[in-house]
């Protein structure tokens, strides 16, 4: 029996839940009768140094070590590889960055890179470890042999998603991700019902799941939910598909089955595929929250990034959703190289005028051009940010330092891509000033909404002092971070953790769902 150690690297965005990619791999490994352990360095409560990881690896003594790699984490992962390489264990990798630039990871010390979906690939790799399969017979990998780069035959996407075993979430240490029952419920509640995306947004990478849109059946999804209810007592589900509402027939069938289970659920959805009838069906089945990717209130920007809808359509669907009694979060992006001051103003007016109809704004911020996206390929040479992940401190400093997410980033709109030594698209002083002013206006809307949500009483008069308290904490966190990021982590991060352990947190958050 082989033993594998899988690692989810630390990231500036602490993960409130389970990284499903590794959970699916864990299930595939166990299905073959082998053993697996996962180190979740991105958990909201996790605190692993590279030395900690090395000690765990020595003690566990795996037959191979696998690391998931995203572009933002790549440089830190390569530092970890240098340390772990001394153990003499085979190093394997997968994930978006690995699937996009496998040759880079091999040059940095990995032995084998998995390209694309890896549930079947990991099984074949285990057969290789057991001496039952040759390396060059494993589809969907890249490796070096005698210094020469080899790509094996491309592995086709899994067409029957129902054939994949449910993700195994028991391999994660609960202490890394939750402290109370409600946190555990949220952490283990993520479910994905489809893979692939046929949309053509210019900022999105599809290196793992591709363009081929594939669906799990409604019955298979409900079976997973029943197993989560039984194992973790879950009553709430977060469907993390890029979009859940493309196939209306499947969604209606899902809704009918969800209604029978008494599940409360949240999802991401495409507003250009939304109808009033579907919203009613979703609401009746327990849907309480939808996340829409709007990105911009400027029709010109929407056309250039190929979102496939107009601001008028977005406003219509937002109002439909509000009228259906479903809460909603909106996502916006700023800083596109073709964005104008007028375009920014149109997005701000959209955000402010539609404020009565939505409940939150995703703390996204300034566009980051990931490799294998159209916006990266088109502009990386012109703006000289090719291979930016080798020097992330020049573009987005706090993504690079590996510390926990500062408090101001947790509660306010993210403008960190404006504070590096340079910017992806070489914003001049006027452009930076316009973007910073825009973020201040967005934060005013955010704090007002967050204060109303945090008010656990029926007295709306308390909203204002809560709002001012949030503004104070935001500015304090940002000020301390400017002086010293590590000091911010010690002061604000420690205080945040203590609050999450307190009775007040349990009373406000764990008894009152703030989806």
List keywords for this structure.
globular, alpha/beta, 20 helices, seven-stranded parallel beta sheet, 43% helix, seven-stranded mixed beta sheet, disordered C terminus, 515 residues
Structure description:
This protein has 515 residues and is α/β, with parallel strands linked by helices. Helix content is 43%, strand content 14%. It has 20 helices and 16 strands. It has a seven-stranded mixed β-sheet, with helices on both faces. Strands 8, 11, 12, 13, 14, 15 and 16 form a seven-stranded parallel β-sheet that branches. The two termini are 42 Å apart. 41% of the residues are buried.
Protein topology:
Blueprint: E1 3-8, H1 20-31, E2 35-40, H2 50-60, E3 64-68, H3 74-84, E4 91-94, H4 96-100, H5 102-107, E5 112-114, H6 119-129, E6 141-145, E7 148-151, H7 181-187, E8 190-191, E9 194-195, E10 214-215, H8 218-232, E11 236-239, H9 248-261, E12 264-269, H10 276-284, E13 287-295, H11 299-304, H12 311-323, E14 327-334, H13 341-353, E15 360-361, E16 365-366, H14 374-379, H15 397-400, H16 407-411, H17 429-454, H18 463-483, H19 485-501, H20 503-510
Parallel strand pairs: 1-2, 1-3, 3-4, 4-5, 8-11, 11-12, 12-13, 13-14, 14-15, 14-16
Antiparallel strand pairs: 5-6, 6-7, 9-10
Helix pairs in contact: 1-6, 2-3, 8-9, 9-10, 13-17, 17-18, 18-19
């Amino acid at each position: 029996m082989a033993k594998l150690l899988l690692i989810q690297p630390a990231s500036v965005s602490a993960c409130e839940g389970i990284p499903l990619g590794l959970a699916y791999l864990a299930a595939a490994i166990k299905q073959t009768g082998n053993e697996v352990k996962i180190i979740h360095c991105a958990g909201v409560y996790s605190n692993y140094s590279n030395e900690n990881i090395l000690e765990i690896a020595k003690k566990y003594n795996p037959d191979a070590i696998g690391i998931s790699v995203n572009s933002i984490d790549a440089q830190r992962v390569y530092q970890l590889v240098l340390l772990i390489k001394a153990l003499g264990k085979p190093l394997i990798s997968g994930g978006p960055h690995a699937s996009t630039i496998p040759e880079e990871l091999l040059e940095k010390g990995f032995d084998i890179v998995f390209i694309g979906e890896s549930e079947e690939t990991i099984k074949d790799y285990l057969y290789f470890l057991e001496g039952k399969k040759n390396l060059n017979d494993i589809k969907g990998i890249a490796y070096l042999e005698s210094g020469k780069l080899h790509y094996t035959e491309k592995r086709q996407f899994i067409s029957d998603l129902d054939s994949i075993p449910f993700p195994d979430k028991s391999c994660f240490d609960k202490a890394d991700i939750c402290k109370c029952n409600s946190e555990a419920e949220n952490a283990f509640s993520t479910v994905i019902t489809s893979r692939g995306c046929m949309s053509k947004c210019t900022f999105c990478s599809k290196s793992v799941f591709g363009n081929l849109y594939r669906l799990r059946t409604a019955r298979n999804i409900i079976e997973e939910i029943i197993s989560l209810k039984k194992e973790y007592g879950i009553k709430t589900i977060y469907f993390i598909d890029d979009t859940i509402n493309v196939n209306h027939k499947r969604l209606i069938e899902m809704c009918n089955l969800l209604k029978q289970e008494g599940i409360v659920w949240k999802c991401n959805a495409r507003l250009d595929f939304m109808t009033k009838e579907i919203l009613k069906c979703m609401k009746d089945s327990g849907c309480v929250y939808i996340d829409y990717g709007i990105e911009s209130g400027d029709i010109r920007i929407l056309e250039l990034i190929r979102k496939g809808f107009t601001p008028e359509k977005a406003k219509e669907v937002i109002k439909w959703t509000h009228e259906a009694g479903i809460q909603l979060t909106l996502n916006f992006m700023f800083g596109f190289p073709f964005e104008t001051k007028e375009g920014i103003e149109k997005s701000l007016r959209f955000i402010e005028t539609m404020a009565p109809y939505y409940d939150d704004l995703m703390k996204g911020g300034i566009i980051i051009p990931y490799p294998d996206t159209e916006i990266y390929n088109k502009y990386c040479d012109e703006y000289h940010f090719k291979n930016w992940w080798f020097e992330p401190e020049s573009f987005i400093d706090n993504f690079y330092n590996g510390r926990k997410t500062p408090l101001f980033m947790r509660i306010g709109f993210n403008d960190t891509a404006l504070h590096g030594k340079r910017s992806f698209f070489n914003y001049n002083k006027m452009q930076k000033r316009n973007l910073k002013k825009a973020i201040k206006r967005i934060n005013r809307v955010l704090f007002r909404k967050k204060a109303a949500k945090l008010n656990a009483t029926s007295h709306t008069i308390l909203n204002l002092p809560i709002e001012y308290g949030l503004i104070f904490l935001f500015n304090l966190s940002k000020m301390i971070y400017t002086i010293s990021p590590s000091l911010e982590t010690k002061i604000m991060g420690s205080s945040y953790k203590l609050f999450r352990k307190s009775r007040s947190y349990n009373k406000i958050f764990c008894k009152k769902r703030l989806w």
